[in-house]
Amino acid sequence: MVGESGSGKSTIGRLALGLLPATAGRISFAGTELATAAPEALRTLRRRMQLVFQDPYGSLDPRRTVGAQIADALSIHALLPKAAHAARVGELLAQVGLAPEHAGRYPHAFSGGQRQRIGIARALATGPDLLVADEPVSALDVSVQAQVMALLADLRARLGLAMLFISHDLPVVRHLCDRVIVLYLGRVMEEGPTAEVFARPQHPYTQALLSAAPSLHAAQRRTRILLQGDPPSPAAPPSGCVFRTRCPQAVPACATSIPPLLGTTHRVACINQA
Ligand code: SF4
């Protein structure tokens, strides 16, 4: 899921995990609607859905060993007898490229990339089916970003995880994601297979985002489309198409109705594409 800051990406990630109540619409996971699920069903679902945080520094408690913090999830969900926690924590650390003996160390002993690996190990502790990764590499150095992305891609393939990857970084999304959702002011502008959307963006907002993204390949470089102004407040969005105040292709009809998301596998919300 991509979009500028303030587009609602993180909010949707938290809604998907049931960490925020939805004011409208439905969110289902594995056939169960979160808003109406019984507490026990919700508890089971929560075990199957985990969050990887953006900030590897702020998301770990500096006063507790990383092993204790990873084991918290095992205790909270009563997944294993306490005597088995240490072995499981060691496995989880090895799974993210760290050593089992790192369990006894405190967060300050690790680099940013290692802390993010610890955050991923903690998220994997419950054996989730879905990881929501909210800008998981944006706080890291570029060289470390590639390593953590490779780890996430490897875990996804090896463990059969579904992953909702939230980012404002288009090259990262292109590298990692099968499908992409482009969000603007809380609304989906375009959605489809990543390769297709990147090769043939249909929505003016996606076209502008992609025109600003760096590319090493000359054939993929586009003429830069500069968007005027800042996004409006999500609390007071424009009428009709929420993108119309910055859209280079806007026409008067864009102010009167919200364009529906149309298409089959590649969908676009723009009256010019209807
Ligand atoms: S509906 Fe109008 S304002 Fe919105 S993206 Fe399309 S052309 Fe631009």
Strand content: 5-15%
- What is the structural class? alpha/beta
Assign the CATH architecture of the largest domain.
3-Layer(aba) Sandwich
| Span between termini | 23 Å
CATH topology of the largest domain: Rossmann fold
Most strands sheet: 4 strands, antiparallel
Per DSSP E runs of 2 or more residues, the count of β-strands stands at 9
Shape: globular
Radius of gyration using CA atoms only: 21 Å
Q: Which range best describes the helical content: under 10%, 10-25%, 25-40%, 40-55%, 55-70% or over 70%?
A: 25-40%
Give the overall average pLDDT: 91
Structural account:
This protein is α/β, with parallel strands linked by helices. The protein has two domains: 169 residues, Rossmann fold; 72 residues, no CATH class. Helix content is 34%, strand content 13%. The chain contains nine helices and nine strands. The strands form three sheets. A four-stranded antiparallel β-sheet has the order 6-7-9-8. Strands 3-4-5 form a three-stranded parallel β-sheet. Strand 4, helix 6 and strand 5 form a beta-alpha-beta unit. Helix 3 runs parallel beside helix 5 and helix 4 crosses helix 5. It is globular, with a radius of gyration of 21 Å. The two termini are 23 Å apart. The model has no long low-confidence stretch (mean pLDDT 91). Bound molecules: iron/sulfur cluster. The site of iron/sulfur cluster (SF4) has 13 residues, from loops. The site of iron/sulfur cluster has 13 residues, from loops.
